[in-house]
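Listing S7. Sequence submitted for prediction.
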Amino acid sequence: MAEVIQTRCCIAGGGPAGMMLGFLLARSGVDVVVLEKHKDFLRDFRGDTIHPSTLELMYELGILEAFLKLPHQEVRELSGQVGNEVVGIADFSHVPTHCKFVALMPQWDFLDFIAQQAKAYPAFHLTMESEANDLIEENGKIVGVRANAPSGPFEIRADLTVGADGRRSVIRKSAGLQIIDLGAPMDVMWMRLSRRPDDPRQTFGHIERGKMLVMLNREEYWQCAFVIPKGTADAVRERGLAAFRSEILALSPFFGNRVEELQDWNQVSVLTVAVDRLANWARPGLLCIGDAAHAMSPIGGVGINLAIQDAVAAANILVPKLLKGAPTLDDLRAVQKRREFPTRATQGVQVAIQKNVIPRVFGEGKPLKLPWPMKVLGAMPFLRRIPARVVGVGFRPEHIKTPAA
């Protein structure tokens, strides 16, 4: 007979949304079990951008100083290049937060840090190598999950089950929740190339007709995102690594022979981009947050930060309920009501960029020219505060309102 674990809240998924929610619930005295299917957090090319809104939450929790002791890079402005013209796009020096920069940090370091903070509270239980594979439903209400671990199958019974298991969420599929697909015309090929001290310092993107490359300065290396039309990764591979290296070199000639570091396609990870959201984030006893509720485009690197904002909003609304018992469906819907506007607004901006920029890049025609919005940002530097605010803080930043137990 499968082992049965009882808890107040079971969170499926140990990503940014799940770990932050687990931390905040345990911090307020709510017994919580977080299930993470992998044995550790070491996976490359996940969201590595920690925005000012998330850093502000660290400040409010009193852990910012410790967090910033971890190895990271600080991006204080973003630039873009179209053809031979380079302009500044976002200036974070005026965002209304304590940290006026985007921190670049491997996601495993971020998750390890949150896990260590959460383990200080006896109500927090993190179970690695444990994957939720189905929901337990009784009388129309979700009452827990069935899961697998190396030791065998087990069940977790909970007053609240949270699906935080990403854009390929098993939980939302098992719940039969309706997905609204907004479409995405591109995919992204991620890779690393070494960085030299005389390389450009800023994080920037370079666009030419038919090509787009985004480069994140990680001090010792460049984290590069080569944007391709949707579903063409196999065609890129068929052209061969030599052709791929040549395309990168055409966009960033300063790499020189460093492109030869790419010797195998295993060094290149493909992100299949999706932009979608659930029509309803909740059922009785169940709530979805983060990518499980709304998959974001990599444009702006906002996905991890929106997921964390979801977790904070969920904790703010649900902690008082969970301390007393099971939250109602109306309580769960209140989380969606709180977070739906920033989700829709952010996805609206992403979809607008996708529709207006991506087809122009990959369409046929003359060499691309600097679009008028970038010309305005180049001519009026103070306007760069606007995209910095949208990217760095978002449309509805959350704040910690839950008490520490």
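Caption to Listing S7: primary sequence and predicted structure tokens for the chain studied. The longest helix spans residues 329-356. Residues 186-229+232-271 form one domain.
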